[in-house]
Design a protein that fits this description.
It contains three helices and two strands; from the N terminus they run E-E-H-H-H. By secondary structure, it is an alpha+beta fold. It is elongated. The relative contact order is 0.07.
């Protein structure tokens, strides 16, 4: 098998690259499974979300809306 290792700055191995043919042998899979494609949001939906976010920023700056931390934002996702 032809693995390729990656190392950190101290020379400690931190990862390994396994060619897909080798991986298939290891796992017994016969073909690569591609992740399902999700449709992209429409341009209008993206622009609407940006506009909503900008309105919220303006409300926060005016003191009408309480801001949240980045951790709170990420937890909400």
């Amino acid at each position: 098998m032809s693995f390729q290792y990656t190392y950190d700055a101290k020379g400690k191995p931190v990862g390994v690259f396994v060619p897909i043919t080798e991986w298939n042998k290891i796992t017994g899979e016969t073909k690569y499974i591609k992740p399902a494609k999700r449709p992209l949001p429409s341009k209008e939906k993206v622009l609407s979300s940006i506009e909503k976010g900008m309105r919220q920023v303006n409300q926060i700056e005016k003191g009408k809306l309480k801001s949240i931390s980045l951790n709170q934002l990420l937890d909400a996702l």
